[in-house]
Amino acid sequence: MPASARHQVTFRNKNQVTGTFITFEGIDGSGKSTQLRLLANYLKQAGCDILLTREPGGTPVGNRLRAALLDAQEEVDPLTELLVFAADRAQHVRRVLRPALALGQVVFSDRYADATAAYQGAGRGFSPELISEIIQLATEGLKPDLTLLFDLSVDDSTTRTRRRTNGSQRGDRLDSENAEFHTRVREAYLQLAQREPERIKVIKTSQPLELTHERVKETVVPFLRSRGHVPHHEVETSSSEFSR
Ligand SMILES: Nc1ncnc2c1ncn2[C@@H]1O[C@H](COP(=O)(O)OP(=O)(O)O)[C@@H](O)[C@H]1O
Ligand SMILES: [Mg+2]
User: Fold this and answer.
1) Residue 26's closest CA among 142, 109, 141?
2) Which ligand 1 atom minimizes the distance to the CA of 150?
3) Number of structural domains found in the chain
4) What is the pTM of this model?
5) Residue 54 lies inside a defined structural domain of this protein
6) 53 lies in which domain range?
């Protein structure tokens, strides 16, 4: 954390809101990025400034790590994958997340540490002990204040990702894993939500995206308001937002 951000924490005025960290999780094609965009646009219109970021790839170094992993032309060893995601996260936590939260910002991240538990833990089979050690090392214990877990059947999410990648005829490396892999990942995510129901809210995304957006707003807006972030007026979401 830069010295200036540390200074801000020490001298934070009591009336100043503290930062809020919200993560968006779920299997590929479950609707994370779509709902993150809709919610961020809605909140922007309501006068709430959000820092949007993602993992992997929330920093310049992280972007290069993301590209190296997702576009790899050789087989990437699961241990390499685990460590590269951890490296990406370490950079993200120290250079982006902690400084922004120390300044009182609202931060939305498209994936974070739960993805490592689900993908590298349940998906690739690394032990829960190793996974939690690596997560602790990379995050220094920084946990989201709220996590939205977007949940959809593997079949439906595969159909949606196929539609998304139709143009290029191929998705990225993780898109092409088999259905059993994605099923293990999905189940692991749901178990995490059962273990931490206060933090992780499951949002079903089988419905049309307008309805999912309503559920997302019902979950996030009161939460942000309780932390002093959202102005008290409502805004209309324009219907053109939903055309894809
Ligand atoms: N509720 C929905 N109904 C139909 N299609 C959806 C819905 N939500 C998202 N999609 C579409 O599914 C695809 C995957 O959504 P996306 O937000 O990219 O998922 P993720 O970021 O979780 O991989 C996109 O083409 C998106 O437009
Ligand atoms: Mg996405």
Assistant:
1) 109
2) 22
3) 1
4) 0.89
5) yes
6) 19-231
Which residue's C-alpha comes closest to atom 12 of ligand 1?
A: 160
Grade residue 239 by pLDDT with cuts at 50, 70 and 90. Answer: low
Q: Does ligand 1 have an atom closer than 6 angstroms to the CB of 160?
A: yes
CA–CA–CA angle 135, 141, 146 (5° rounding): 95
CATH number at residue 55: 3.40.50.300
Decide: 159 and 149 in contact? Cβ < 8 Å: no
pLDDT digits over 62-111, tens only? 999 999 988 888 999 999 999 999 999 999 999 999 999 999 999 999 99
Residue with tokens 């996030």: 220
In this structure, are residues 185 and 27 in contact, taking their beta carbons and an 8 Å threshold?
yes
- Does ligand 1 have an atom closer than 6 angstroms to the CB of 167? no
How many helices and strands, by DSSP H and E, does the chain display? 10, 5
Query: Does residue 2 fall inside a structural domain?
Result: no
Q: In the structure encoding, which two tokens stand for residue 226, read together?
A: 């309780």
Contact 51, 110 (CB under 8 A): no
Q: How far is CA 28 from the centre of its chain?
A: 12
End-to-end CA, the chain: 39
Least confident piece of the model among 36-40, 70-74, 179-183, 197-201: 70-74
Ligand 1 neighbour 237 (Cβ under 6 A):
no
On whether the CB atoms of residues 56 and 69 are closer than 8 A, the answer is yes
- Residue ranges of alpha helices (H) inside 46-178 are 60-70, 78-92, 98-102, 113-115, 128-139, 154-165
The CA distance from 218 to 45, in Å, is 16
